[in-house]
Amino acid sequence: MSNKAVFLDRDGVINVDHGYVYRKEDFEFVDGIFEVCRHFQKQGYLLIVVTNQSGIARGMYTEADFQRLTEWMLERFREEGIEIAAVYHCPHHPKFGPEETRDCDCRKPKPGMILKAIEEFDIAPCRSIMLGDKSTDEEAGIRAGLGKNIKINDSSDIIKIIFSLPPKD
Ligand SMILES: [Mg+2]
Ligand SMILES: [Zn+2]
């Protein structure tokens, strides 16, 4: 049987969105995010991060900066008993960066990152969930055919979603 996954946006869902965060000093985990992830992990969901990182196209930080922060973030999750299966990021922007990368398929609301994960992890979209803080996250999830697309209005909402979801798929 295919896998099921929770697709997590990063900024505004995993960490407080301070805008173009690329240093661990500025990476503030959202209250409740570890509980939310452990909850889904226990129910057998893969946890996959899908994040727009146009700060790279904008020249605000580098790919290496992003990867360094990601490694640190994944280690923090592991310390909390949480295994993140993969992190997909879009480094592009329609107005910045090399001309040929501006019209990419991965920048949300496009579903490219989610579709890639579905393929690579043999995920059943209809059994899977998008968890984002913007309508572009929701739209990407809908376009990828995910069964449930949740948009939190405030990062303090995140803990509530545990109780708003049916216990089983
Ligand atoms: Mg966000
Ligand atoms: Zn992209």
Overview of this structure, please?
The protein has a 5-stranded parallel beta sheet. Strand 1, helix 1 and strand 2 form a beta-alpha-beta unit. Helix content is 31%, strand content 14%. The protein has a single domain (9-129, 147-161), classed as HAD superfamily/HAD-like (Rossmann fold, 3-Layer(aba) Sandwich), CATH 3.40.50. It has 5 helices and 5 strands, in the order E-H-E-H-E-H-E-H-E-H. It is globular, with a radius of gyration of 15 Å. Helix 1 runs parallel beside helix 5. With 169 residues, the chain is an alpha/beta fold. The chain starts with a strand and ends in a 5-residue tail after the last helix. The relative contact order is 0.21. The structure holds magnesium ion (MG) and zinc ion (ZN). The site of zinc ion has 5 residues, from loops.
